[in-house]
Amino acid sequence: MAGLTPHPWIETLDVYEGGKSKADGATKVVKLSSNETPFGPSPKAIAAYQDAATTLHRYPDATAAELRAAIGALHGHDPKQIVCGLGSDEILKLAVRAYAGPGDEVLFSRHSFAMYPIAAMGVGATPVEVPDRELTADVDAILEHVSDRTRVIFVANPNNPTGTYLPKSEVERLMAGLPDNVLLVLDAAYDEYADAPDYMAPDYLVPSYPNLLVTRTFSKIYGIAALRLGWGYGQPELISILDRSRDPFNLPTTTQQAGIAAILDQDWIAMSKAHNRRWRDWLNVELTALGLTVVPSQANFILIRFPETAAPDGQGSNRMAEGANAFLLRHGYILRWLPKQGLGDCLRLTIGLEDDNRAVVDLIKRFLQGERA
Ligand code: PMP
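# 4'-deoxy-4'-aminopyridoxal-5'-phosphate complex -> structure
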């Protein structure tokens, strides 16, 4: 007997690496590596979560009706056009599972969300990485890479890990240029933080395109990453396909109830957004003044580019970003160094509370002045 044989694409699957949450040796640890909100969820969401604990012996509402109604009311969407998932990750996976398989291609930009290739490979499809331009999705390049085998395209807007975005006109050009048998997943996980005048939440395109899925999450500005709640919005036929392929009880009652309370507290969201805008601008100015390059961001994090110098022995390069990452870690600040995403000269910093933003800038300054311990 040869024993169990997994599908070859499952056997070789990469495991998604989340942001670190421990800093060895440091007494105070501040996690700024996973784009979580520094405020946590609305206190009303925490109260709703606790209340839901009294019904733990009951199965959750398999249709998440109340939650979909709350989301629909906020966004002006028909709840029939909303599917909820265990994080938006589940929605991304449902989309590839429904429309792609072995022999099909799934497209996404270079320097985009690390889950896209994992989702593609999870169903045996071929991940195709499309070159980007100035760390931003390149609509022409994406359209050029569409082949007869392309089934799904992922575009994060604003994008993780770069914070860059596509303006409304470019999203429209992309959507209009796609064949109708290719599903475009517009991943709007950071939508609430975007405020560029030419950015637009893509939902308004859904009525015109049966092959568009917009995804969103409660893990960022809504602050309930631990409860895993995301959702997708599309035309009823598309949503019904995704809905049929999810687990019936995919969302615990605690998650549904906390999500409803979170969405009802829009003052909390406005406060978080204003804080983010203020400190994103501040960090930009302060870090640029230190001689670093900050990639303009529309999200709740910024990508900081450090200069690279040739190593003293002439072998490869001296990765200043790696050293800065280690220095910050020793002082309890966890950022994200991204060599695997081809960004070994960059650190991604999630925008934190005022004192932590100030502390990070101070530490980077000390590091640049030569301090190493
Ligand atoms: N899309 C993007 C672009 C993300 O950055 C993330 C989280 N890092 C997600 C989707 C997934 O979020 P969740 O599954 O927590 O909803």
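# post-check
Residues 35, 87-89, 113, 156, 160, 187, 189, 217, 219, 225, 230 surround 4'-deoxy-4'-aminopyridoxal-5'-phosphate (CB under 6 Å).
The longest strand covers residues 343-350.
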